UniProtKB/TrEMBL annotation:
Protein name: Unannotated protein
Coiled coil: none
Pfam family of the protein (one): Glyco_transf_4
Organism: freshwater metagenome
One Gene Ontology MF term: hexosyltransferase activity
UniProt xrefs under InterPro entries: Glyco_trans_1, Glyco_trans_4-like_N, Glycosyltransferase_grp1
Residues annotated as domain Glycosyl transferase family: 210-362
Species lineage: unclassified sequences, metagenomes, ecological metagenomes
Amino acid sequence: MVTFGRARTLNLTGGGLVSLRVAIVTESFLPALNGVTNSVLRVLDSIASHGHEAMIISPTYTERWYQGVEHFRAPAMPFKQFAVGLPHPSLTANIAQFRPDVVHVASPFWLGGQAIAAAARLGVPSVAVYQTDVSGYLARYNMQFARAAVDRMIAAIHAPATVTLAPTPASASYLTKLGVKNVDVWGRGVDLELFHPDRRSSPEVRASRQLIAGDKRVVGFIGRLAAEKQVNQFDALMDLPDTHFVIVGDGPERANLEARFAGKPVTFLGSLRGEDLANAYAMLDVFVHFGAEETFGQTIQEAQATGLPVVAPASGGPLFLIQPGVNGYLGEAHRPQTFRPFVHDLLTDDGLRARMGEDARRSVRLKSWDANNAILLQHYERVVAAAKPVGMRERQSV
């Protein structure tokens, strides 16, 4: 069954909030920069700020410690541009040694599936966070023949989880149709201070914009430059008059895209983080995302927080984030020509663009990372409270 709404705040000790030990097993972590990594980093921040303890298991990070949190590296194999974590006997031992109250599994596949199963054997509740549309990616890589098998695998991976958190009602419904039980909806937060409309009027941003685009309007994309993002579909917008395009990010498709758009009014800025990333958003007039396999769309939220109208496909996460005609528009997935009229209208109507930009910011105003992750921590408390106390460590009030 799918449940919606916020988890209940529980008092496990009768005397206040509790200090929890959280084992995080993630299919992606630093140095990879993507939605899974970003979400895990924010969760770690919240765990620390609330006085909880964590450990990390991932296939990508090479260091033993991350900001005081112990890390264990899992074996991995390359697939396309990804490092796919592999099951390993040490995973169960590492989890057991940490003695967690709850196991958080980010975007579980092979590695995460083992972690969920291990948690069940150890009698520890698990929270599985569904973040990657693996089944959808198979179509992108011409592997549709494996889709049914992957759907069965996803169902089997999530079956032992105490609760599965999906980013949108649509993805929750997908999991429920696969037979996954105890599915709830938990979205993603956004840094409302870093990504802010006021940044667009800063002298630094204005100077950068003038240097890159002169007096032209600026349309852009920010994200990983991989095939599933369909950045090549910006072809459909290249004939818009007095328009410059900015593409921010890196990935396996960057060289192909740079060659494709050579001689066109396109600037590639590479991978950016922090203030530089926020300034890149602030240079834009309109944010466009063509990728049709997004389970959520974190960059869409960051654009909205910056006060930008967004044009994206009527597929996946954008359906949850964009209200057509209010804070952006939805084009037809895989039909980039349907995006062009929307982008044209936004570029040529200053009032429309300003109104939608204000509504875009308004649509995320309650989605700070603190507020978002408070809901996650409540999920932790709920599953821990419902778990059998046998074998669990004694918890201390904080």
